[in-house]
Amino acid sequence: MLWAAVGGGLAVAAEDAAAPADQQAHELEAVMVTADKTTSKDVNDLPMSVSVIDEEELGDYQIDQVDQLTNFLPNVNYLKTGSHWTEVSFRGMGAMSNMVYTSYSSLDGVSLPYVGSDAFFDVQRIEVVRGGVGSLFGRNTHAGHLNIITNDPGDTLNAHATARYGSFNTYEVDGAVGGPVNEKVGFRLAARYSGTDGWIENDYYNRDDTNDGSQASGRAKVVFSPSDACDATFSLNLDRFDSANDNYANVDGGGTIHTLNNLLGHDNGSMVLPSLDLRKRFGALELTSITAFVDTKYDMLLDQDMSPLDAIILDYQEDYQTFSEELRIATTDQNAVWQGMAGLYLMHQKGTYDMDFQFGSQGAYFGSIPGMYQKSDSELTTDNAALFGQVQYRPWEKVEFTAALRMDWERVKVDWNTAYGLNGTTYGTDKYDADQDWLALLPRISAAYLLATDQRIYATIYQGYRSGAYNVLSTSRDVIEHSVDPEYTTTYEAGYKAALFDKRLSLRAAIFYVDWRDIQLSVVKDGLVVLQNAGKAHSYGLETEVGWQVLPGLNILASLGLISAEFDEYNGHSSGENLSGNDIPNTPNYKFALGGVYRHASGLFAQASASWIGKKYLEETNGYQQDAYVLIDAKTGYEAERWAAYIWGQNLADELYVVRALDFYGMGYYGRTGQPLAVGVELQWRF
To answer: What pTM was estimated for this model as a whole?
Structure first.
């Protein structure tokens, strides 16, 4: 199948008796998506920049984590804090080291406040929406959104299993089985387990397994269809990861896999997510209800001094319990002159955060008293309610207008406590509680014109926002008292989408300008580092995605992202510098991807891809630059009807590139390096 994210979102067409055999062999059909929450639509019909990749393409291109996915997406990038903690930025917005973490993805329509949501398994497709899509998804989608859709049971009994083994003693097994129980009930069970010794070599302990880890995930889905007009889907998603936390080392000389940490730490998390999706069709209308509860936990122990010293240990835990309900009604006739959607969203979330800094026998190296500790425990209670709607009007056959609006209300209540002491004796405590609420109006308007069959141009203006917050990750009352208001983005976008040459070639292109204001940033005020709405920024650029089915079985892809992203205003940084005019970190100035998949009738399979990623700065002062690098992957093997075998390689150029860096007390830059060269084998079985 053709790559959907950077190859135009198209797949090989089903047989069409009315099409000539030679044309049918090359013809592509549109991938259907639900990114605009109305009904399933051709991705090329949406007046916004959306990339899509399906299950087969995830496997072909060896993509099972978020960071691997972003390598192929123009102007979508990431910051990797730990083995699983991945933050995504869209067009330069988000994923900065001095910002509070914001969830960026949803699973089957349910938002995921979970740092372990980086792995994919038994996924039908991933929809990547760029831009401030607040009118659709509301809070914390000021930059973009990853919409993950998992597989349904299927019309017939089906099953598959995959086993992989590779460098660093890395292994992975996953599988799924599903199908109908009877005419009204279907089921699907899926599971994944992975483990690794990690690629870190700890020179303090002279070991190469000090960043080992494992992850276990499972999903159960039952679909009940009492009639052709009604479906009820119950899902249960489970996940748990357990890892060491030996990631960080001095990177002044560039990427490195060697650390000197004397504390290996841990990086653990878990998620339980039951949900109920109800859909009822009434003639030309469909009513949808999605009810979910998400319970997530994260536990981190880190050698904060990142050295052999017994100096600083950070022990941190966070828990979220989130209940949400979304109710919406939408028209289903895509040919109607008037189409629409209206909805209601409710959310209640309780988040707890426990942070403990311990200063060891050599804490004086960092200006602290040995044996000293600082602790804080906080509780944030968030209530969110939203009304949203969309109207689409087609006055003429080739002209289409869309208007959408979401009204988001949010209240945040904070309950914060801190304590400090020495050698187990508490010498002081403090506490603070407060609440704040905000109201956001998030409009979106667009116009589209059909140039010809399967060719359209569009222009869209949309707004997104990031919720207001308290800096609960602090041990100072003077810091926690400074709440921050929401930050906003306004995106101006124009694009062209087409399926050309008898639908053998697909093309998507967009130009954009993003205005980012009231940015929540860490600044120095009265001698304290506090979180404030202290910045303005902008980005503009181009993104292009091309896919070409050259011959039956041979698909070529290419994508290009060009971007300029910088701060317009940023005073008060802890470095003392005025950062206005600096580049926004974690935003390469270009990204070019090229790849292809070939399947021969004999069963031979080959895949190769390369992503050229331009230079970028990894923190706000632009003091640390990651030079341009290229990631080359390949996979080859044999595919039979029921089984397949492959050999694969990742990062074949063995690039050492830094994915997270920070200035550590003026003692140099410390950071985390991406995966080096890895090779392995893969076996698949299908039924």
So the answer is: 0.91
